[in-house]
Write a structure and sequence with these properties.
The chain is about 5% helix and about 35% strand. It contains 1 helix and 15 strands. The strands form 2 sheets. Strands 1, 3, 4, 6, 11, 12, 13 and 15 form an 8-stranded antiparallel sheet that branches. The protein binds 2-acetamido-2-deoxy-beta-D-glucopyranose (NAG) (2 copies).
């Protein structure tokens, strides 16, 4: 039995296929994001959600660099700094948004593992008084959020994962620390988390109420608060280690 179990583990480990690779190895600089359009769907990301009222481009809000990735990751050369400010209204607002979505012909649906690492930086961190939706599917069946949830009290400086309307993991985030996540969609589903270079552990078993999909947003969406005009200078989030695999999962960040 032990030998069979070992073989099965080995078979699982070697059979994982990366269905979409959102690491930024094929990008020279953020200007490459500007090549994407609905009529020219190149690269690994769709880049259409950002403030553009004053002629800004995707690269006005996104910066690539080795300093923006988890230093523990070896399979990527760089990560991305995602910025919003008071000019980040997209499609008339009132939310402030800069987001990246997968560009792929794969449907990214099934029992899959969506990987993402993120950091709340020490410089230009988000204001905890506002709800920030930072990793989510358009259907909002599983979201990573930071800050005071809109219409609620008492959980301001909190990084959390929410599915089915309930928080399944939360922490008061340490700025400058890398948080690694795997959102396991489909069945059985679950959530895997670690910090820094530690192996990801399954911290929640159960459905994330969704099947994956390509309408997966990574970045910054800041909700308005009491209808107040949001004159902010700069808020940043850093991301790396973004990819989707069909088995495993790979638990090294
Ligand atoms: C990166 O570019 C190479 C060369 O064009 C290509 O073979 C590879 O598939 C690209 N990688 C991704 C993740 O698209
Ligand atoms: C907001 O960011 C945009 C894009 O980088 C920049 O053009 C603009 O000057 C910034 N606005 C302020 C008030 O800093």
């Amino acid at each position: 039995m032990k030998a069979i179990a070992a073989l099965l583990t080995f078979a699982t480990a070697v059979s994982a296929t990366i269905l979409w690779d959102g690491r930024f190895n094929n990008y020279t600089s953020a200007a490459d994001f500007d090549q994407w359009s609905w009529s020219n769907q190149v690269g690994q990301y769709q880049t259409y959600i950002y403030g553009n009222l004053h002629g800004e481009k995707a690269s006005s809000w996104l910066t690539l660099g080795s300093e923006y990735k988890n230093p523990a990751t070896t399979a990527e050369k760089q990560g991305v700094k995602v910025k919003i400010n008071g000019s980040s209204t997209w499609n008339g607002g009132p939310m402030l948004r800069t987001e990246l979505l997968p560009q792929t012909t794969n449907s990214l649906t099934g029992h899959l593992y969506f990987h993402v690492s993120l950091q709340i930086p020490t410089v230009n961190p988000p204001d905890p008084a506002y709800e920030h939706q930072i990793v989510f599917w358009e259907g909002h069946y599983a979201d990573i959020k930071y800050g005071q949830l809109s219409g609620q009290n008492g959980v301001a400086d909190t990084l959390q994962v929410i599915t089915g309307g309930k928080s399944i993991w939360s922490v008061q985030p340490v700025k400058g620390t890398w948080y690694n996540f795997i959102l396991e969609v489909g069945s059985p589903g679950g959530l895997w988390v670690s910090t820094g270079s530690s192996s990801l552990q399954k911290v929640y078993s159960g459905s994330l109420n969704g099947n994956g999909g390509t309408d997966w947003h990574i970045g910054a969406l800041r909700l308005p608060l009491n209808g107040v005009t949001q004159q902010i200078t700069e808020t940043d989030f850093w991301y790396g280690g973004i990819y989707v695999e069909d088995s495993g999962p790979t638990t090294q960040p």
